[in-house]
Queue: 4 jobs
Job 1
Amino acid sequence: RSLMSRGWKSEISSIKDVDITWNEPLSKYTTFKVGGIITCIIYPKSKEALSKTIDVLKGACVPYFVLGKGSNLLVADDLPEMVAISLKRASVEAESTEAGGRVQVRAGAGIALSKLMRICLNQGLTGLEFLVGIPGSLGGAVMMNAGTKHGEISDVLEHVTMMTEKGEVRITRMNIKFSYRKTHLPVEGVVWDATLHTEKEEKKIVRKRMLDILRERKIRQPEPTRTAGSVFKNPPGDYAGRLIEQAGLKGKVLGGAKISEKHANWIVTTHGAKASDVYGLLKLVQNTVEDKFGIKLEPEIKLIGFE
């Protein structure tokens, strides 16, 4: 196989337990509702199918990324040949096991955090409430060490199952490094499932904690429509939103994108917006904040298809 190989499409199509949609507009799959047409979205339904998919794509030098709930992505309007892998159709049900007073919850990477929260509430499990209201998937939350001031994935992650082109690799917590909004895994591949630790608690107490966090989010943040949440990571000892507001950029509009007037670290889009509008605002914020305060803000969202 080589860069010139075009046989990868037929190879992918022949893998067992894989669904494929070709030439899909990614605007349908991202919360910004922008993004160009991707070569294909691949839905592996088993570990073996995912491993084989990675093997074929790496062998043919076709770039790929994992598409979760699309809540942390900005995808360019014009994309080169590339592939998205979705674990939405992978059959990994959430399960819990109790040991030594703790309850371990194992769930597939494709599960929505909202569904995981419902499971915790129904089973009376506490410890993951910090994830309530975050619109992503478990795999995305693991990869970006998702969290809030109430906690983050690094506080609760026990182990991760990764799929590589060579097969399954199980990684325990002691072999995982964490930093702010980033999880550093020792192998390259795709998260298949994750195990998190929780504790038993009365359902009414879990429900109250979740509702309190949701109320707090609603007061501080814009309505979660056509946005990807926080665009930039908070720099050490400061807040990206404060710096953007101090730079006079709150409410700034570019095409169909706008810096939220409620929270300056959020960009919202309107119908007809393009990815280039959002990206233009992102670069404007970076340049203005660096000019005024000497701080280069680092994107928290993942940029796909941009140089």
Job 2
Amino acid sequence: MHPMEESTASFPILYSILNGSMLGVGSIVAACVWRWHRRNPPNRAACTDEIVARAWNTLHLGALLFAIVLLFVLASASGRLFADDQVPAARLALITLIYTLLVLMISALNRKRGMTWEEGFGMGPKQLRLLRFSPVLYLAAIPFLMIATQGYHWVLVHWLDIELTMQDAAQAITEERSWLESGYLLVTIVAAPLYEELIFRGILFPYIARQVGVAGGVLAVSAAFALIHSHIPSILPLFLLSVVLCMAYWRTGSLWVSIGIHAIFNAIGALAIKLLY
């Protein structure tokens, strides 16, 4: 979710100030990042080799994907066990449980491969210092995401007559109150970025990059990341966000950076929703 994905009908002045500020600051930061990149070009072969060396084998990947599908199918089926007023709390509990189980499974499979978190994902204590690059890269990406998304939404509304709606997670934040609201915010800002980055950038990206190269891996993972959210207004924004996240991981070698960008992206979106709705 993100402020640029939401309707501007409520508090248009506040929305305009928020987006205008992000566009202006982001453009300056993007220019600085590009200049730094030109002066400090990456060793492309070394970056690629580091990522590809972390690729899981097909057996481990298949086991993880099977567990993901099974858990979410069981969670969907369990919805009929709860009364309507119990569904929000039950959904939050199930999401938290699934994320926890899958992260534990990833940790176990990573150990089975004989790798530490640092070796498998660049997520050792030493790499935590790289988190300082997350807000910088987020701001640098914002102008491109905003411009592309506004154009995409214009096409959806004016050419395809598709209504712009909020994602389910965003809707839950606007509707729920008290501890449920806090729980959904925590999942959105902390749990979801960790889980999704481990799955998409940490595991799928290296696996596919080993088969078809980095460019193919970025495109395939980004398409999967966008489509799996099942939200038409978010397809292009999430695809572009995934491209940024993949390249940040490739460039820095640490999944901490991608997790940080993803968490900021979700946090800014949640903040905008609370301000505008």
Job 3
Amino acid sequence: MLGKNSVLIGLLLGLILPLTAWLLFSKLYPNVIILNKPAIPYLVALGINLLIIRLCYKKNADETGRGVMIATFACMLLFLFVFKIRLT
């Protein structure tokens, strides 16, 4: 079973906020643009993930922090490509 300090737990934890932001702002509120910047909600979610990484490393949950970091990096790349394609 999964332990408290697991990369898989970190991956799942790291995907919660970006997926929630994507669900809210692309499916429920598709025409809402904050400050004329469509990527703001996703960047806020990724910023909160960076705070979660910091907390994980402070609490010596290195594997969980590594999982959150992998998920955050993957979401950053995904959002970069999605917005680059959508804006050009």
Job 4
Amino acid sequence: MKQPLLRIGTRGSPLALAQAHETRSRLAHALKEPEDSIKIVILQTTGDQIQDRALSESGGKGLFTKEIDEAQLAGRVDISVHSGKDLPTKLPDGLSEAGFLEREDPRDAFLSLNGHTLQTLPKGSIVGTASLRRQSLVLHKRPDLKVELLRGNVQTRLAKLKSGVVHATILAMAGLNRLNLTHEATSVLETESFLPAVAQGAIALVVRSNDRKMMAVAKTIVHAETTTCVAAERAFLTVLDGSCKTPIAGYATMDKGIIHLRGMVLSPDGKQMFADEATGKDAVLLGEMLGQRIKARLPADIFLH
């Protein structure tokens, strides 16, 4: 059997596979090779197996990357594909970010069976989400609503919404777009009022640090502006020790070489919110500076609420 030209490691959810196929298509085009010469290797992660509790109670973001990292370090896959917002701020020794594909829609989508928006949802309604950031933002804007844990992939969450387990849910617009489920969104939550997760909508590419050839191949398909903006967001997150345990939002845009970064930290109950913004040319310095600025304002017990 002919050896594949290269192997892409990914989770097995429909969204993860859509992202892996998009990456494969771009790589095949860049290398001028047929798509079937690039193999997609599906790896089950701990994060996929835990469905009964929040990831913040189980170890955080790395649960969606650990097994893929191990396969990559063992040489079973050459390049791995992750949702940018699932990527830990510090990668294991031996692995490096190659960059990010061009960002899809960064916004969140609000989904409700009865056509309500977040503003018009009846008092006491239940919003299901697995994201602390979304929980905090919902409670900040609508303290009269209830937020309950809703785990699973996009299709699982949609099924739970339609069966009446919750009255509404919030999903990434990028995921709905990539799965051709855009029509499921009742309304779109604009970034000005509902700040996204760091790297939301961006696909991350990771390679072995010593694999110069694969790094060069990956670099042919990464998007420079997205990679720069996400670098600012991730630097912001790193300063705040961002994990799944902290409700943190961050979103950067770029215009004529100037990066505009907005960041936010909330208490889990949504009662406290600390937001700021800044502009600059150096992505990492900008992210670190804004992170330090907000961190200096945070009460010591903010994440205990």
